[in-house]
Every structure is written in structure tokens, then in C-alpha cells.
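Action item from last week, closing it out:
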Amino acid sequence: MTTPAIIMLIVAVCTVWGGFIAAVLHLRRTPEVDENDQGFGGDDYVRTT
């Protein structure tokens, strides 16, 4: 493999793993969403189930 290919490989691997680690840290810091939460505008609609 050429030097530019190795550099691009390292950049791509760091980007993927860095995003994965950032996502895991974000999910660990963010509180869990309530099970009864229906999302945006959930109070405007009647639950049918």
C-alpha cells in the first residue's frame, strides 16, 4: 500500500471509532427517555393502545 492510502486508512478508522466512542459517551451521559413519552406532540393525541 502506498503512503497516501495508509494515511487515508488511519483517518477513516479514527473517524469511525471516534464517532463510536463519542456516541457511547453521549448515550451514557444522557438520561433515559420515559417509556410513556410519545415524542413531539404526544400530548395532543389520544393513545389508542
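Closing note: The mean pLDDT is 83.
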